[in-house]
Each structure stands twice: as C-alpha cells, then as structure tokens.
Amino acid sequence: QIRYSIPEELTRGAFVGNIAKDLGTDVAKLAAANLQVLSDSDSQYFSVNVNTGVIMVSERIDREQLCGQNPRCFLHLKLAIENPVEFYRIEVEILDINDNPPEFPSDEVSLRIYELASLGARFPIQPAQDPDVGTNTLQTYHLSANDNFNLNVKARTDGGKFPELVLERALDRELRAFHYLVLTAEDGGSPPRSSKIRITIQVLDANDNHPVFDRPSYGARLVENSPLGTLVVKLNATDVDEGPNGDIRYSLSSHNSAALRQIFAIDEQTGEIRVQGNLDFEEATVYEIEVEAKDMGSPTMEEHCSVVVEITDVNDNAPEVILTSFSSTLSEDALPGTVVAVIHVRDRDSGEQGKVVCHVSPDLPFQLRKDYEHQYSLLTSTRLDREHVAYYNVTVSASDLGNPPLSRHTILPITLIDVNDNAPQFEQASYEVLVAENNPVGSVLVTVSAADPDSEQNSRLSYSILRAGGTDPGLDPTRYLSIHPTNGQVTAKFPFDYEQTTYLQFHVEVSDGGSPALRNRTLVHVFVVDQNDNAPRVHFPRAGEDSATQFRISPSIVPPALITKVVAIDADSGRNAWLSYHLVEATDLGLFSVALRSGEVRIMRALQETDASAHELLVVVRDAGEPPLSTAVTLVVLVEEKGPEALQGSEARAADGGGLPTITLYLIVSLVLISTV
C-alpha cells in the first residue's frame, strides 16, 4: 500500500506522486504492463501518466464534500499491472485547507426580550457552521460593544461552540426600544476567516407607565341648546408604553352623575367629548366632568382629569304666566277696578332676558296693574254689559327683554254673570187680531212674543192677560180668552158672535223671573169678523110656518101696479147682509115680477079672462154670503071684484111698509162701520 497526502482544492494536473519511483520499477516496464488506475469512488479524481508514472489530479477535490466533518479524509485507488497481474492499493489523504469561513444560518437574527427580564437571563444565538476541520474550523465568537449584554460561548463535548447573550443591565423600552449588536464568528486558520451576524433586539414593553394627560384640567364654554354632537373638548393623554400597554381608552368616570352622562359622551378612541343631551343654562350653569384614561395593559393603569364646561345663557325660555288667583266668572254689574285675577310672571333666563313685561289688548274692558316685580293684577277698566258681550277671552301677553324677545300668551276665559237689569220687550207695541166669529173653542187667536236679553232665570218669561183701561167693564177679557204663561199663545174660551161682540181689547203683561221681576205690557186689539151664519128673516108679510099670505087684486088692475112688498132683514153684516129677491115659482111666471133689491111684487100685464083666479108665488130672499143663505115666502094672489077693499088693503100694506127706508138705512150704516174697521 502506498500513501500520499495532498491538500484539497489542487488544480487539475497537480502532482500527487510518482508511482514508478515509489514502486521501484522502471517506467517502461509499467507502460508495457498495461498499467491501469481504478478508483473506489464514482468519480475519477486521479489519473496516471504511464510514460512518466506520475499520478495527477484529474478533478477538483473538495474535502468537505467528500468527508464532511471527519477529521481525516482518504481517497483509495487500485493500481493493476498485467503480465503478471499485480494489484497495488494507493491511499491518498486529502488534507484540509482553510477554504471555508464560519457561516451563520442567516445574516440577521431578531430577538424579542421583555423589558422586565431578569438580570443574568440568557438568550441563545444560533451558532455559526464551519465545514473545515481542525484548526481551520470555528474557534471563537466576538460580540460588539454594548451596555446591556455580554457574550457567553458554550462548548459541547463534540467540539461545537454555541454563543449566548447574557443580560447584564436592566432594559428600559421607553429609554431604548431596540438594540443592534454584531456577533462575529472566527476560525483558527492562517489567516483566520470570519463571518458576522446582525442581532436586532426588540425590547418588549411592560405596562410600567400610566397614561398622562397633557393638562391637569380642561375648560370649555358652550352656548346652551348647542346641537347634539357639538364638540366640547378633545382630550389628549399619552402612555410611553407601547402596544396594548400604550393603547389608551377614554371614559367618563363613575363619579359623574347619571344626569351628566345623559348630556355628555366621550369617544373612547379619540378622547373627544361631545354633546349628546340638552344643555339648559337654567338647570346648570357649570358642568364638571371627571374623565379617566386607561391603558390596555395587564394590569391596567389609569389617570384622571377634570373638564369644566361653562354654559352661556341664551334667550330660549319664554316667560311663564302663573295664575295666583283667578275667577272665571264675573258679575256684569262689577264696578271698574274690580280684581279679576292675580298673575305671577317669571322667566328662567338670566339678565335682561329674564325681565318680563305684560300687557292686554286695549280694546277690552280690562287693564293690568303692576303690583310689584313679577306680579300683576287684572282689573276691570269700564262698566260691563253681559247683554252686549257675555264672554271675554282676555289674552295676557308676557314678553321678555331678550333679543329677539320671546313671548307667551295666556288666555283667561271670563264669563259675565247675568244681573236682571233688562225688562222684557215685546216684539210689537200692539197687536191687531182679526177673528172670524164662531171660532172653535181653544183655537189660537194670536201669539204674543217678548224677549229678554238677560239669561237664565232672569230671561224666563211669564205672560198674563189684563183688562185694558177704558173698556166696557162688562167685557172682562179673561172671560173670553186665556193665554199660555210661557209661549204667549192667546186662545178663545168660547166662540165669538159678531152679532153680540164686534171688538175687544186687552193688555198682555210679561214678567221675567228675576228678583225683583221686571215687567212690560202690550195692547191687543181683537176684531170679530162677521161670518154668514144668519139666514135672511122675512118681516113682511108675516106668515106662519107652512102657510101663505093672501093678497086680493081687482081684475082690472093696471100694470105695473104694486101688489105687495116682501120685506126681509139679515142679522149679518156687509155682504152677508146684502139681500136679493127672486121669484122662483109662480102659476104664471110672466104675469108677476119681484124687484131684485126692493122686493116689490108687481103685476106685469093686464089680467085676461083666461087667467086663473088665484095665483101662488114663491119668493126666495137670498143674501150675498159665501155660501149664500136664503129664506122662502109663499104669496097667494086672489083675483076678485072687490076693488076698493083690495086697494085699501094694498094701501094699508103699503102704509105698513112705510118703515122700510129706516131699516135699510140701518143696514147701510152698519155695513159702512164694519168696512171702516
């Protein structure tokens, strides 16, 4: 066996050894013996020059690749010679050279160390690796200068060296949050080779600092009734810790009242305090808000501060009107200056905005009197008349002195109580009534109506009938008439008879229900209107019932001789007494005639021998009423030769009828009187 030693990384063709010399043979013999070199590995790192017997490097040799960390590295060759066949074992030791520096796994490493870490705490660093061996491998570490850490290198039994950082001085993140170190690994080669790694140490925060406000207290001024969301103040607190330990949350302290929490709200992230309720100067002029700032560390640390908010008054309150005393009813005869109400006014605003003046409309019979500050009395200013105005709505206007002023209007309803100061008044000073005779009993002749502007009991009217002065004492109106006491309807107790009573007058008195009662009267004239209720009555010729009156005439009577005259009267008046006479039936209608108005019966032609000796005439007396009434009378005319007697009888009857013009005159006068009325 032949052994050679060569360093690694020789160039191709580098001399390893002379096999001919080392075997003690001739080079020519080796060439003739068909010399061959066989390697145990897959790669042919060596070759032999058969002409010179020199073994040379044919490929790059990397000891670390071939043998790793083994302290010794060998490559084995077999040398074969023919004629005769011989084998020689050649062992080539590959010697290490310092061709690799120590190398860390990365160029930079980061450590996170709690700032409250204990002194002496150790923090391992991944070691550097050097594939070289022996003195060429990693030998030592060096740490850059710093104030807090030292380097400790742990040696293992296998020769490995592991660096550790040892905390020698307490960390303070708030003073220095990052430390930057450099660790150098160096081997023992000549010259030595080294590599470096940067170590970044992040000091992890500990919650060792509480939040701090930039001011011990804050102040703000707001106008009352500020809109919701109005910014009051923005707080600013800082915590030198980091992460959750320096993350600050703002809140209102539990020391604040529930009412204050309804008015203000704070944003826990930004520290902005905003209005979320109604700000009322009249309820509070100053608010003191206690605020706390907490970090999110464990345990949490907190800090407190005060925010003083001053509220500025604005004219946002209308005056208030309070009725200390008030009577909603007032007698209409109250004297001027009567106190109706006592009014207290106030305004919750301050300064000029809280001063109040009051007034009422000058068109009303009321006035305000200022008793003293904030109190007024409402008085009557003139006489009152319920019948003119029964109800008042008195508007009391209260205005403050703000700019612009605010007002409040309070309506006081005042009802006047009636006093019986008005007598009833009839609608007419007198009434004229036409009543047809034979009126039904109980029929309404007239309705008298009176009105009383008073109210309630004072306006309740009662009617009664009184006899009018100057009337016939025998004509008592209460005998014929009655009146309803409440509605004034005058009714008849008996039917009127025109032929007995044509005219009646009386007084109707009305009285109210006041105390004392007030009265008034009206005069009623009742005129009885005639009705055609009487048939004509025959006065001449007089005859009994179912009998006829006989008259005698001479056969030689000369037409138009008067035979007789039918005389009738009618107790009615006017047209109802206008009579007409009619010949309705006769033995010979052409022989006799009856005057329409006078009732004279005359012969119309000379008698003839052929005429009957007795003639029966039916005369009807009819009035002009509607419907007309009539009476019939039967006359018998006898034709006889007793001329003188007949004539005498005619003259006598004519003489008896001499009173007819007087009766007719009476009828005419009566008709004129009734028509005049």
Question: Could you explain the architecture of this structure?
Answer:
- Residues 5-104, 105-213, 214-321, 322-426, 427-538, 545-663 form the Cadherin domain.
- It is a single-pass type I membrane protein.
- One of its GO terms (cellular component) is plasma membrane.
- With 677 residues, this protein is mainly beta.
- It folds into six domains: 2-95, Cadherins (Immunoglobulin-like), CATH 2.60.40; 108-204, Cadherins (Immunoglobulin-like); 212-312, Cadherins (Immunoglobulin-like), CATH 2.60.40.60; 320-417, Immunoglobulin-like, CATH 2.60.40; 425-529, Sandwich (Immunoglobulin-like); 537-639, Cadherins (Immunoglobulin-like, Sandwich), CATH 2.60.40.60.
- Helices cover 8% and strands 44% of the residues.
- It has a four-stranded mixed β-sheet.
- A hairpin with a 5-residue loop joins strand 20 and strand 21.
- The protein is rod-shaped, with a radius of gyration of 78 Å.
- Residues 643-660 have low confidence and may be disordered.
